[in-house]
Amino acid sequence: MSLARSLILLFAMVTTTRAASPLAELAAWPGLIAQAKECGIPNYPTIVERAEKNEMFALTTVFNVTPCTDGHAGEVQSAILRRLLEELGDKTFSRNLRGMPPRLQISVAQALDFAFGKPWQQFFPMTHALGSHDTLFLRGRRDI
Predict the structure, then answer these.
(1) Is the dihedral of CA 23, 24, 27, 28 positive or negative?
(2) Model confidence at 142, in pLDDT bands (50, 70, 90)?
(3) Residues 107 and 75 sit within 8 Å (Cβ to Cβ)
(4) DSSP sequence for 33-97
(5) Residue pLDDT, tens place only, 110-123
(6) Is the pTM of this model over 0.70?
(7) Is the predicted pLDDT of residue 102 greater than 80, yes or no?
(8) Which of 14, 18, 34, 105 has the greatest number of beta carbons closer than 10 A?
(9) What Cα–Cα distance (Å) separates residue 102 from each residue in 54, 79, 99, 129?
């Protein structure tokens, strides 16, 4: 194998590893792990990892943790939901969320409102349509 090919493969491995890393880092935040345990989920980082691979039960579990979080853990949970939505896509994410009780759909939608910080329906219309939205979360941020 040529040196150039080896370097390209090494770069691809590092890039792939780094791309998955932020979600894993978020899921490993101690405050969120503690609140997930209080909600009956003992190994939250593993659940998030499985949700990222589109395991329906794991994604459902991530949704169910949302109303159990508050404070900084709630902020981290919101960021996890946003990343999962972006990675899995609107169709997959909304299909799984659609099967949840309306209260949970609203909780997830409002967590996403917080994570995006401004209107996001044009990017993910199917998911956006599943909940009511808190306009207080949709002001002032410009980081989409």
Answers:
(1) negative
(2) very low
(3) no
(4) HHHHHHTT-S-HHHHHHHHHTT-HHHHHHHHHHGGG--HHHHHHHHHHHHHHHHHH-HHHHHHHH
(5) 999 999 998 999 99
(6) yes
(7) yes
(8) 105
(9) 21, 21, 9, 12
Which two tokens mark 106? 């609203």
Task: Please give the torsion angle defined by the CA atoms of residues 61, 29, 108 and 55, in that order, rounded to the nearest 10 degrees.
Answer: -30
CB atoms within 10 A of CB 16: 10
Q: How far out from the chain centre does Cα 14 lie?
A: 22
**Residue 60 corresponds to which tokens in the numbers above?**
């459902």
Indicate whether 78 pLDDT > 80. yes
Length of the chain: 144
Instruction: Supply the pLDDT for residue 42.
Output: 94
